[in-house]
Amino acid sequence: MPGDRIDLGSYFDWYRLALERGWTEGLPVSPPTEERVQEVIDALGMDPAEVLGSVPPLFGEATVEQVAVNCVMAGCPPEAAAIVVAAVQAVLDPAFELAPVQVTTNACAPLVIVSGAGAADLGLPGGHGSFAGQSQALAGIGRALRLVLRNVGGALPGDTSGLVHGHPGWLSYAVAENVRSEAWPSFNTSRGFSESETCATVFFCQAPFSMYVAGTPNRILNVICATLPTPGVNMYFGGGQMLLAFAPKAARELASAGYSRSDVQDVIWRRARYHVGRLREADVFGVDPHTFYWGARRTGPLLADLADDELLPMVDSPDDIHVLVTGADGQWWVAFCAGWGEFGGSAVTRAVRWSKPRESEG
Amino acid sequence: MRVISPVPRYKGLVVRLARRPGTLDGALIGVLDNWGSRNPDGTTGMYPLMAELVVALESRFKIERGCWIKKAKAGSPPTPEEFSRLTRESNVVINGVCLSGGSTSGSIYDAVALETAGVPTVTLCHPEFENMSRRYATALGMADLALLVVPAPTGGNLAQDASSTAGQRIDEVVLALTDPTIVP
């Protein structure tokens, strides 16, 4: 069903209307005129009436036209809109569990990870400030997805969403892979896609927490493994998945010492563990200890019965640790983004379907 | 300047509640539990307030314990097999708990699905999530969904006060599951 048409006098009439109707949190949004929306639809080469799915919590239908409208409002350039469509398809995949994701109290937001051949083509900065939206396309992609979730799905904190804090990524949360890092094959390959494709992965996660990991490969891994397993992070309560975003310098250091991406996942999974004795010493088990550690909620022994030297995993398997290379060369940073745990928002990837073939994709 | 609204026209669903039985005598009481508890022997048990509500119903009516489903994920529906078992082996259901955003979404979705399948359902909800529960139920077409708004346990002790809360609130549970006037 085509969206309602509204006649307005000026940009400021539009912006006032958008604020009154709650179509933006407050940031300015571009007016989605019929002409601008048509430009996006033309770039997509899709039927504007095509329904991508129903978006909770209010179950509005995400048509291609509705997505295009929100792309225009977000300032997303028409040539990047195909990435937004892929991201919308990813969040609508049942594996993403969008219904609880849209309304949780947890301070996560859907992060769009753009990886593979097309990222650099579009001028998406996988280098300096890669999480900081340093291009119209990257900022627009993250913002467009947020506006679709807000305007089509109706997720409004304090009304239909229980969000307690959130984080600034609620406004726009997107990151591009550094395709020139020369550390490991593209992130695409760890998601079952080829390097030559362009992919959008959506992962529901907290804001990046940057760890300084300078040193030898061993020290890089030691710092990560000693820093992560703390009882306040989502992984203690929820398990699920996490993202480690390596700056190229740290990734290359590991790669040159022979560590593949899966080696890194495996080492971190085996060594970043909760130490029962330290948890006991810190008195964090609580009245109902089963409640608070994900593994103990399922089956197995009660935490109170475990010996001090037992080690508890943060997540179920090494595959639940996503390893991305992004950011600039300058220093040895690794950003940790905690997912929401087993409750929803696990990473889902879609290949971007361009309306015209791109040279970079061969 | 002509702009296109970024908001779709929502469907405006209206779904009727299930017919109420009039009395709970002879009823099979089902429980759809998103949280559960761990027993001292390590096995998984029922969420304490739900367990106490079942005990309170047993003290008043000749009921039978029907199906208890402990969901794998609070925010997601039970499996189709679990749902089918629940509707087959229960005449009424105690559902919940809406104690976070995700569990609210999951429990309200489940309650609407159960009512639509003809099973009267009451959903436990913490006060912080009452408004969200009602908004979500309305979006799913069931604005008059029965909620039992109960205070959150303090200090993470789920068993605390469960028995006295059940005793104090059991009349509301009975009314929600039996009052024929609840169905317009």
Can you put this structure into words, describing what you see?
In chain A, the strands form four sheets. In chain A, strands 5-4-6-13 form a four-stranded mixed β-sheet. In chain A, strands 7-12-8-11 form a four-stranded mixed β-sheet. In chain A, strands 2-3 form a two-stranded antiparallel ribbon. Chain A is an alpha+beta fold and 362 residues long. Chain A is built from 15 helices and 13 strands. Chain A is 35% helix and 17% strand. In chain A, a hairpin with a 4-residue loop joins strand 2 (51-55) and strand 3. The two termini of chain A are 37 Å apart. In chain B, the strands form two sheets. Chain B has a five-stranded parallel β-sheet with strand order 5-2-6-7-8, sandwiched between helices. In chain B, strands 3-4 form a two-stranded antiparallel sheet. The model of chain B has no long low-confidence stretch (mean pLDDT 91). Chain B is built from five helices and eight strands, in the order E-E-E-E-H-E-H-E-H-E-H-E-H. Chain B is an alpha/beta fold. In chain B, strand 6 (92-98), helix 3 and strand 7 form a beta-alpha-beta unit. Helix content of chain B is 35%, strand content 19%. In chain B, helix 1 (48-60) crosses helix 5 and helix 3 (101-116) crosses helix 4 (130-139). The longest helix of chain B has 17 residues, at 162-178. At the A-B interface, strand 1, helix 1, strand 3, helix 3 and helix 5 of A face strand 1, strand 3, helix 3 and helix 4 of B.
